[in-house]
Design brief:
Elements lengths: L3 E4 L12 E7 L4 H17 L3 E7 L6 H13 L10 H10 L3 H17 L7 H10 L4 H7 L3 H16 L7 E6 L6 E5 L4 H12 L11 H8 L1 E3 H8 L3 H13 L3 E5 L4 E5 L7
Parallel strand pairs: 2-3
Antiparallel strand pairs: 1-5, 2-4, 4-5, 6-8, 7-8
Helix pairs in contact: 3-4, 3-5, 3-6, 3-7, 10-11
Subunit structure: Interacts with Spx.
Function: Adapter protein required for efficient degradation of Spx by ClpXP under non-stress conditions. Interaction with Spx stabilizes Spx and exposes the C-terminus of Spx for recognition and proteolysis by ClpXP.
Subcellular location: Cytoplasm
């Protein structure tokens, strides 16, 4: 695997009781980000007791100062709406100011609309509406969207991306918090077994896999999944996964939403209690 390299310790890192920390570098609207996040979901379910993780936004953007000035114009009514490639990343950072769980809910809602094409994910107005859908404090979100704090947080992500020499997105960098050594950078996407092997090698011990949750518990946690994701998580065929999903749809536990290119299975009336 030529795309696995050693990198230096990050500039700042929160020490935790879990020995491994993952820096997950993504462009949140890139199709490859969805693929890597699918693998990460299974890794969380089976081995999250060994690691913490954080997303680092690595979107290629320009004219960031210009777009934040235009966002402030929306507050005063100078613009009815604006669109810009920077807006989704700034929106995620605004959501992050309400906590990691809030940010993760917002990212999932953003990606859901991106996959289904149900909203313009580069639109300021649409991104504000998504905050309400993700059960965020919408007033706080609007205040933070385009704020200096959100911009600095995004700039920090871009700085970390440069410092770790991330030249391919998505990538994951693994750090062992208990050992003072370089992190292991894995550029691109590999099979699930590779990531499990890396965890075991970094811990230098046999790791214990947690049992997978039931279908109902799975949707309580992630709220929407594709058929492929469900099949991958449970190591079953696509047809078996679809049969189980249709059962739960008939039981009114989940609903199917789709367009010409993708089908999502979504929890009905999510509680956001995780």
């Amino acid at each position: 695997m030529n795309n696995i390299q050693l990198v230096s310790e990050p500039v700042a890192s929160d020490k935790t009781s879990k020995p491994i920390e993952l820096y997950v570098f993504i462009d949140p609207l890139c199709p490859n980000a969805f693929k890597l996040q699918s693998l990460l979901k299974k890794l969380q379910l089976e081995y999250e007791h060994y690691f913490t993780w954080r997303y680092v936004l690595s979107t290629e953007l320009t004219a960031l100062n210009c777009v934040t000035r235009r966002i402030k114009g929306c507050f005063t009514g100078a613009d009815v709406d604006i669109t810009h490639p920077a807006l989704p990343s700034l929106a995620i950072k605004a959501a992050e100011l309400q906590g990691k769980k809030a940010a993760n809910r917002y990212i999932r809602k953003l990606q859901e609309h991106a996959l289904l094409g149900t909203k313009n994910v580069h639109s300021y107005t649409a991104l504000v509406k998504m905050a309400k859908e993700a059960n965020l404090d919408q007033e706080e979100f609007v205040k933070d969207f385009g704020s200096k704090e959100a911009v600095r947080a995004f700039q920090c992500d871009l700085y970390i991306t440069r410092e770790m020499e991330i030249d391919e997105v998505p990538s994951i960098v693994f750090f062992n918090e208990y050992i003072e050594e370089e992190g292991l950078k894995v550029s691109g996407i590999y099979s699930y077994e590779i990531y499990v092997h890396i965890l075991q090698e970094m811990l230098d011990e046999k790791i214990v896999r947690k049992p997978l949750p039931s279908f109902d518990e799975l949707f309580q946690r992630f709220h929407y999944l594709t058929t492929d994701e469900v099949a991958s998580i449970y190591s079953i065929s696509i047809s078996d996964a679809e049969r189980e999903l249709k059962k739960r749809m008939l039981q009114q536990k989940i609903e199917r939403v789709s367009n010409e290119t993708v089908t999502l299975w979504r929890l009905k009336q999510p509680s956001f209690s995780f």
